[in-house]
Amino acid sequence: MRVLLVGAGGVGTAVTRIAARRDFFEHMVVADYDEDRARAAVAGVPRAGGPDPAGTDGGTAGGGRFSAARVDASDEAAVRELLARERCDVLLNATDPRFVMPLFRASLAAGAHYLDMAMSLSRPHPRRPYEECGVKLGDEQFALAEDWSESGRVALVGMGVEPGLSDVFARHAADELFDSIEEVGVRDGANLTVEGHDFAPSFSIWTTIEECLNPPVVFETGRGWFTTPPFSEPEVFDFPEGIGPVECVNVEHEEVLLIPRWVDADRVTFKYGLGSDFVNTLRVLHQIGLDRTEPVTVRGADGPVRVSPRDVVAACLPDPATLGDRMRGKTCAGTWVKGVRDGRPREVYLYHVVDNEWSMREYGSQAVVWQTAVNPVVALELLATGAWSGTGILGPEAFEARPFLDLLTEYGTPWGMREQ
Amino acid sequence: MRVLLVGAGGVGTAVTRIAARRDFFEHMVVADYDEDRARAAVAGVPRAGGPDPAGTDGGTAGGGRFSAARVDASDEAAVRELLARERCDVLLNATDPRFVMPLFRASLAAGAHYLDMAMSLSRPHPRRPYEECGVKLGDEQFALAEDWSESGRVALVGMGVEPGLSDVFARHAADELFDSIEEVGVRDGANLTVEGHDFAPSFSIWTTIEECLNPPVVFETGRGWFTTPPFSEPEVFDFPEGIGPVECVNVEHEEVLLIPRWVDADRVTFKYGLGSDFVNTLRVLHQIGLDRTEPVTVRGADGPVRVSPRDVVAACLPDPATLGDRMRGKTCAGTWVKGVRDGRPREVYLYHVVDNEWSMREYGSQAVVWQTAVNPVVALELLATGAWSGTGILGPEAFEARPFLDLLTEYGTPWGMREQ
């Protein structure tokens, strides 16, 4: 298997470090808009004799299995050419969700498989944004479902940790733990702190704003998908392994769009443990309009310039990928399932916890970024070995869960289950 | 008297509308970085037959007493030349405090009098910012005190409403209402709301951030000037004329630096009725670093650009000068004084309230902007008639208060006093 990884940010860099320890693939091209960033990721890959921070091997590393390239993820033709030139079987998208569509179309055109960790963006309903869906997450991708089916290739969408592992948990619950499911509720929480920063999000603020300020989507059998106002239905969820109770609120997330397509459940929700301080911060940004992506005109050094306020917010904050050294605590992703087994009510929480201290020591990557990155590598390995196979656009829950969960454990990062 | 007004924003425009009704000056040149803005201010001046919004008189109006010019307020030489070319006796600075020093120096060099409504900016103490003063508001200006004294011209600094009228009130209290003063506490509050906006500051957000997030300064006899953390010593102050109780907090303001130079008081403070929502917003902006003025690098349409985060915040919000039509309520500026008169304790609040409905109807200017603008016009008239005279750098409290307060009432905008 030859892989084109697009995006050498925090997640992409962690992907290279995790993949370097596995032998299921032949070659991985690491491509980024900023070629230096791609080269740095390649140079940091562990190899016989340790990493090569100076990049003296000319951009290949890890026994020559990695190489760096420059590509503009928004340039579909350039991505297609790169896939062809490098004879890649699969494109792994580790960029902002803004670049999903060009990368998705380029893969289809080039006859390559495709994996991403976030789906194409939503647009709120023009008149009833907090009641009805407009364009949903992934709609633009699923519009090409027939083309993908005909291509004989698989587009495995939403294959990070959330969406991704959370969807695998839902499928596992449906297959092995429940006879019928009342609610699947993905619940995400952490107790991470960053030394020296009052406010330092552990994940891309661009994406965090996008998912937290868009109208949250909920699925109910009979009613289908609908939306609510931001931060709706707050609840305190008790997270395992010492994280403890965190206030969670509804957030727009891919699982709610994916799970009902393959798993029978009366209700599907996603709640994020933002905590009240973070919710307050997001509310203020929204009130001022600093969450907006449409550019505003501002005085620059050489006259007026146009910038997106959300990009300015991101530029003011530290890059989450660089915070690992000063971060303390654990992050938990998981799926809470309520239903019936053998005629009796049952409730479980299937979860995966990463301790930042461990991920920094083992991989030099901070916990949230590492937890996102490990899952698509496991999925690539399942596709490479044929343990997972299929054609068309598929979510993680379209595949048997057991092989994934077993291989994840083999990667040294086991999952857990709490009966409640 | 020939006046050079620099700055045709909300306050500058209101200055032209107020001055147009008075005959103490011969000519007013309205200069701005954006000449269109200066022309619009001039064209909007009421004249025989009404205003001239199309500017068809070629940039003069109000019986030829106003004309427009372009000037960069940061270009000292250009301002000096303009003063000379237009034979102006006085420069009235209605720009951001960033431009105080070049305008102040240009006036000195040109032999013109100078008035402003905010003083040169402070810089926090490098090690103990919330305990000790670094560079104080106005320090850079007072460093030129000797030059101004020798020039025979007056630099009347801090002559808006706050600082300005609030300082006049302090002098009036010292002269006519108290034998000794324990505390002079300037207190500013409003009940203004803006239709259609959850968050729409009624005054320059650039200046509001500057004064609210800098360490607040306090004066005490014996101890001198010192600082506290932002938003310190919250108190609820009951504002008159139906505004009612508002939570006020310490804020860095010029009165604390000016009043002790000319008025005997054991303690001088400034508290601003921000309200808890506004304090929360400012805290969040500060936590993210969006209050910063040093530029950050952001992706622009044609590659990376450098912008100041605070300018981006301002660009996201509506221009306060344009909000008058959708604004409701009143704004109150005033000075609370506690002390002794005839051996008995006394407490008074001297205040000036502007109802937005009135200022919009009478002058087409929103209340906060109009209230700031009327005071320097009154001061100019006192200087023109000789009722006020002096040389050197002087605050409003360096002059007798009575002529100012009487003329303000003659302008149709009376002040009030509450014995408490």
From TrEMBL, chains A, B:
Stretch list, region Disordered: 44-63
A GO molecular-function descriptor: ATP binding
Entry coiled-coil feature ranges: none
Keywords tagged on the record: ATP-binding, Nucleotide-binding
Saccharopine dehydrogenase NADP binding domain ranges (all copies): 3-156
InterPro entries: NAD(P)-bd_dom_sf, Sacchrp_dh-like_C, Sacchrp_dh_NADP-bd
Protein name according to UniProt: ATP-binding protein
Organism: Streptomyces spongiicola
Highest rank taxon of the organism: Bacteria
Domain called Saccharopine dehydrogenase-like C-terminal: residue spans: 160-412
Pfam families per the UniProt record, alphabetical: Sacchrp_dh_C, Sacchrp_dh_NADP
Compositional bias ranges of the Low complexity kind: 44-55
UniProt key word Repeat: no
Presence of keyword RNA-binding: no
